[in-house]
Amino acid sequence: MEGKKADINSFLKDLKEKSPPLARIYEMTTYYTEDENKFDKFTILESSEATEFSGSVIPPDISICNECVTELKDQQNKRYDYFFITCTNCGPRYTAIERLPYDRPNTTMQEFPMCDFCATEFGDPSNRRFHAQTVACDSCGPRIYLTTNDGKSIEHKDPIRETGRLLEEGHIVAVKGNGGFHVATATTNPKPIIRLRKAKHRTQKPFAVMARDIDTVKSFAEVGHAEAELLASYIKPIILLKKKDDCYLSESISPGLHNIGVMLPYTGTHHILFDDVHEPAFVMTSANPPNEPIVAENKLARKRLGSVVDFFLFHNRAIAHRCDDSVVRVHGLRKSLIRRSRGYAPEPIRLKHTANSCILGVGAEPNATSCVLFQDKAFVSQHIGDVDNPETIRFMKEATYHLTELTNSQVEFIACDLHPKFNTTRLAHDLANELKRPVSPVQHHYAHIASLMGERNINEMVGIACDGFGYGSDGKAWGGEVLSCHQEGFQRLGHLREQPMPGGDLATLYPLRMAAGILHGGTDVEEWLSSESKRFPHGKAETRLIIKQLKKETGLKTTSCGRVLDAISAILGICYERTYEGESAMKLESAAMGGKDVLNITPEIRANTIDTTFLVREIFDQRNKRPVKDLAFSAESYLANSLAQLAIGNAERLDVKTIGFSGGVAYNEHITQTIRKNIEMNGFRFAVHKLIPPGDGGIAFGQTIATNLITK
Ligand SMILES: [Zn+2]
Ligand SMILES: [Zn+2]
Ligand SMILES: [Zn+2]
Questions:
Q1: CATH classification of 499-687, choosing from 3.90.190.10, 2.60.40.10, 2.60.120.10, 3.30.420.40?
Q2: Checking DSSP bridges between strand 181-186 and strand 209-211, what pairing results, if any?
Q3: pLDDT of residue 332
Q4: Nearest ligand by distance to the CA of 67
Q5: Mean pLDDT, residues 506-514 taken together
Q6: CATH 3.30.420.40-classified regions of the chain
Q7: Which CATH architecture has domain 144-327?
Q8: Structure pTM?
Q9: Paired residues of 466 in beta bridges
């Protein structure tokens, strides 16, 4: 183009800043020539085949845009009150696209031929719906309808507002969305929530809520600037927000936790749902039967959810790919992804360098995702869940197949966890046989740190990787690790002290077992454990057996940081039974809110091993003498300070400038910020995740990054 320099610069600035929400600028090349009058027109060229198949063509689902919300509420508008109102800037994408190229016949809109009105808008370059593949209206598009829990249709001219009314009355309703079903209830009335917990066998796990608008959110939760921005963003993830002291929503929504997961309405249906009700928010939890992925199909929903809900709000559009809501937390001003799914997947993570090979990563077992690394992009799937049953394994296969199809890539290596018995490891071997490709097992904590190095483009790092469990290079249970990671691989530099896990997995479910294991040998421990026997399913017989097992000293041991947090949580009476992943540690963090470090324990590190027995003993001795919040806070401080000190000492010795923190424990804001303070005070750069979850949702990505290094 030709023009004055200032005009050209302002055009380039607008191109970046005023682009539509779905536009992604990966690269801009600008050069100036001396010639004048060289150009006589301005054109936008069509995409080349290369970009069509580079995988950047399928965008994630985007929440309803402001223009569509305005039209939805405008009685003069053709799409007034139409639940499936979308445009080029908003609506389902990833969940609606069955295959490439992204044209209507390849989407779940194929069954809804456009009416003349929609077709005119679709064909008009000046219209907001020009080439919007999901365009539809009340006369041609999908329909929404209400049924009883056994599928009998309920004739109602306004099924969505009727659903709102039913929820307010205390009923439980399954609501079909773009990527799957939600189960919804009221939030100010505990009765339906308790009933839902019973039906789902989910006694404690927090439910997310959808609030009417941002002002309503501010009435029950604390919303900082970064959180407000995320809540209102076009992604509309669930944000974990601190409950206000006078939070008036039912405590049964997130029992024992200081925070609550909140999102704002992101489809036309959601907006209409709040129209005629007083309820400030609705519980909106992913409708997944125990240990199964989110339900997305009408028939299956009736079968699997019929006994849980009172009514269904169905629509008749199929879902091509199910996708759960994303979950985000903010540490200070920094966003930390807990679950990267709707609104993010399958948007690729861009790498600085082109990968040596095309690599598929299948993740670990809990909270899995899969990932395809191809050229300079890593495509991480939506949240798949715990890959421990046939239905989730099938979902993992589907999502993985879809990713390779999207990228039109030929997988050359299949990366998996080092754990020989994970279902994902088995899946990797099956795929390897099928494709005649080699398998690359990657140690779990190395994969955590590799994911951090990959997304932050760092070549060398001392990494702190803390979580509940990962299979170690020596076959033992790891989980509180300090690693040296570089372009050649990794070395284990140090870790938390190995602690007994009496009963193996039972010690994860009943954290008092962990506490007994760590405290074992102290004079008063047997007596204390016996006095706590009511906390065990088999009472005194069980505590006697635990002591016997511990005396033999032959059982499993672990260096897990999560298990130490669990033990402390149990000693302080915060959590005796784990009913969902991370429960004890999350409740410990909530209990530590407002606490201070009253113990100030100097890190006990010998031969690169952090002593945790000393810490747990101290907490045990002080348990009835000081406030729980101070002891919880002090314990977290000790772990953070000693992990930081161990990492700093090694980074100095190795002359490495960056120290990173990954693994599920990195969700803990207090621990992360305490490590950060130590690291930065000592002049090191502190790296945390921005694009990938620190938990096991990031493992698949890390596996591909680690494998890429060895396939040079
Ligand atoms: Zn729109
Ligand atoms: Zn139409
Ligand atoms: Zn992990």
A1: 3.30.420.40
A2: unpaired
A3: 86
A4: 1
A5: 97
A6: 499-687
A7: Alpha-Beta Complex (3.90)
A8: 0.93
A9: 480
- Quote the ligand 3 centre to 205 CA distance (angstroms): 20
pLDDT of the residue at 51: 52
- Pick 522 or 110 by higher pLDDT: 110
Ligand 2 centroid distance, CA of 274 (Å)? 25
CA of 598 to the centre of ligand 1 (A): 53
Nearest residue to 298 (alpha-carbon basis) of 497, 448, 145, 502: 145
Distance between CA 342 and CA 422 in Å, rounded? 26
Distance 17 CA to ligand 1 centre (A): 19
What is the whole-number distance in angstroms between the Cα of residue 564 and the centre of ligand 3? 15
Tell me the mean pLDDT in the region 376-394: 94
The rounded Å distance from CA 122 to ligand 2 centre is 10
- 151 CA to centre of ligand 1 in angstroms: 32
The pair phi, psi for residue 312, each rounded to 5°, is: -120, 135
Residue type, 389: N
Q: Rounded to the nearest whole angstrom, what is the distance from the C-alpha of residue 339 to the centroid of ligand 3?
A: 14
Ligand 2 centre and the CA of 46: distance in Å? 27
Q: Taking residues 246-251, what's their average pLDDT?
A: 97
Q: What is the Å distance from ligand 1's center to 129 Cα?
A: 8
- 180 CA from centroid of ligand 1 (Å): 20
DSSP state string for 434-481: HHT--EEEE-HHHHHHHHHHHHHT-S-EEEEEEEEEEE-TTSSEEEEE
Beta strands 658-662 and 461-471 are parallel
- 109 C-alpha vs ligand 3 centroid, how far in Å? 39
Calculate the average pLDDT of the chain.
94
**92-106, 223-237, 533-547, 596-610: range with lowest mean pLDDT:** 92-106
Q: In the chain, which segments carry CATH 3.30.420.360?
A: 349-456+695-710
* Ligand of minimum distance to the alpha carbon of 666: 3
Distance from CA of residue 302 to its chain's centroid? Answer: 27
78 CA to middle of ligand 1, Å?
14
Q: What is the pLDDT of residue 49?
A: 53
Which of the listed CATH numbers 2.60.40.3780, 3.40.50.150, 3.30.420.360, 3.40.80.10 matches domain 349-456+695-710? 3.30.420.360
